[in-house]
Amino acid sequence: MPSHIIDYTLFGDLFSTPEIRAVFDERAMLRRWCDVEAALARLPDPRATPGSRERSSTAS
Length: 60
What we know:
Blueprint: H1 12-15, H2 18-23, H3 26-42, H4 52-59
C-alpha cells in the first residue's frame, strides 16, 4: 500500500517525474543503506592504535 502521494500509480505522475521517484524508491534507498554499511565495515577500527594488531598476533 502506498504511503505517499507520489507512490500511487494514479497520482504519482501529477507530483513527480519517474526520475525523482527512482531517487526515493524503497529498493534504491535500501541499496544505498547497504552500500554505506559495507563502506563503514571496510574502515579501520578507530579504537586500534598503530601496531596493536601486530602486538596482539605475537602475544598468542
